[in-house]
């Protein structure tokens, strides 16, 4: 058997998330259907994680096994010919036996993008959160500094999160301006359900002056007992890379 590793890029606007589910078409479903056409057999694809409806990816890693020894171009160019325009295989390679894209991952890099322009942008509406208010970036950076390190992120997950432990290690939370866009890059060992979006929502509250930067530290001192900020909209989030 061959284990094939795929690096996928997709626009999540028209999908109900990565994982197959009954309430809509998922990215996983579309990829598996394309693979089944290519290989002439059912295929189960396992990913490095899940993205919610409307969330995008530049570097989602997935893997599957097959007995067919096709050249790697069949799993990149060949598969791309069967995929819709909003999903593409960026890289395909044979992985070692037993490779697990989720459990073998050492870390992930997410980017959240906020549009700070006075007026909304129709052309980037699917990829940003339009925040009209002026944001105090210095305060947001101070708040972000409290998120770096190993903490209990119990206050930064949504209902339904089934994680056994809420302790996670965050290696960096960096803010960078690009014209009217504010990118928030979050890198860490792993993430809870909606954790990055709640981190961003909390930082935006800090930037708007609705909570202090030091209040972020209290969310870790009393995990699960104090409320973090709102969950930022999905369209601003993109999975950039998975590290192994």
Describe the structure.
There is one protein chain. By secondary structure, the protein is of the alpha+beta class. It folds into two domains: 2-95, Alpha-Beta Plaits; 107-243, Pseudouridine synthase I, catalytic domain, C-terminal subdomain (Alpha-Beta Plaits, 2-Layer Sandwich), CATH 3.30.70. It is built from five helices and ten strands. Strands 1, 2, 3, 4, 5, 6, 7, 8, 9 and 10 form a ten-stranded mixed β-sheet that branches. Helix 3 (137-145) packs across helix 4 (195-207). The longest helix is centred in the first third of the chain and has 13 residues, at 27-39. It is globular and about 55 Å long. The relative contact order is 0.19. It catalyses: uridine(38/39/40) in tRNA = pseudouridine(38/39/40) in tRNA. Belongs to the tRNA pseudouridine synthase TruA family. Residues 9-104, 144-244 form the Pseudouridine synthase I TruA alpha/beta domain.
């Amino acid at each position: 058997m061959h284990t094939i590793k795929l690096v996928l890029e997709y626009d999540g606007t028209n999908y109900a998330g990565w994982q197959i589910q009954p309430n809509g078409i998922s990215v996983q479903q579309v990829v598996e259907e394309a693979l089944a056409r290519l290989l002439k057999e059912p295929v189960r694809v396992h990913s490095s994680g899940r993205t919610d409806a409307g969330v995008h990816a530049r570097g989602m890693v997935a893997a599957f096994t097959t007995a067919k020894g096709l050249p790697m171009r069949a799993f990149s160019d060949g598969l791309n010919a069967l995929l819709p325009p909003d999903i593409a295989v960026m890289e395909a390679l044979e992985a070692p036996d037993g490779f697990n894209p989720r459990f073998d991952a050492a870390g992930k890099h997410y980017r959240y993008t906020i549009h700070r322009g006075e007026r909304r942008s129709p052309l980037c509406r699917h990829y940003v959160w339009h925040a009209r208010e002026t944001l105090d970036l210095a305060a947001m950076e101070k708040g972000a500094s409290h998120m770096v390190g190993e903490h209990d992120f119990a206050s930064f997950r949504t209902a339904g999160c089934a994680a056994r432990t809420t302790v996670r290690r965050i290696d960096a939370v960096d803010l960078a301006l690009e014209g009217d866009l504010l990118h928030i890059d979050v890198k860490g060992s792993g993430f809870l359900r909606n954790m990055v979006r709640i981190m961003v929502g909390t930082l935006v509250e800090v930037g708007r002056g609705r909570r202090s930067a030091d209040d972020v530290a209290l969310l870790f001192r009393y995990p699960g007992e104090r409320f973090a900020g709102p969950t930022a909209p999905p369209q601003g989030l993109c999975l950039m890379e998975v590290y192994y």
